[in-house]
Amino acid sequence: MTANSSTVGSNNIVRSDNAFVDFSPEVMKAPFFLRLGAAFIDYILIVIFPVLGLLISSFSGNDGSRLIHSQLNNIGWLVAIFVAVVNLIILQAAIGQSIGKLITGLRIVAIDGSEAGFSSIVLRNTLGYLLTIGSAGLGMLFSLFSSKGRTLQDYIAGTVVIFARRKIVG
Predict the structure, then answer these.
(1) Which of 28, 57, 87, 133 suits a disulfide with 72, CB 3.0-4.6 Å?
(2) How many angstroms separate the Cα of 147 from the Cα of each of 24, 28, 60, 88?
(3) Which strand (E) or helix (H) includes residue 90?
(4) Which residues lie below 8 Å from residue 62, measured CB to CB, with a gap of 6+?
(5) pLDDT above 50 (res 7)
(6) Domain extents for the chain?
(7) Over the stretch 62-117, which tens digit does the pLDDT of each residue have?
(8) Predicted pLDDT of residue 20
(9) Which pLDDT score is estimated for 40?
């Protein structure tokens, strides 16, 4: 297996074309609070649109039920749904990262270090997220007790989130 000229972290784990060589989820696992930070960034990115719609509608003179039923509120929620689908499903299935994960340097990979498949990420980010939300976030706490830092959605999809800021070896 030939390797690219990039490494991950200080452990000199080399990424080949499709997988990490000498991949160890225990070494590369994403820190719990960094994962929460990425989730918070994604949440803010989604929620900002309905909030802006309500604020603009309120400043336009709407209040009470007119505020809730205004076109700006509806548009804000439609944009939020679109951003959520693109950011949490399509973008992660395409590159293994949401915008929050991209900013924090996290990446979703298969448990063996290879690129996670489209169906795995869709399963992870639909059923897995629903179960985690339905458990009041307890599914995220799995990562505190897992040596690989895996959450409930990671166990469901056979994935792991790693800290994957790469440095070029020169």
Answers:
(1) 57
(2) 11, 11, 52, 25
(3) none
(4) 70
(5) no
(6) 3-14+23-168
(7) 777 787 888 888 999 999 999 999 999 999 999 999 999 999 999 999 998 888 99
(8) 56
(9) 96
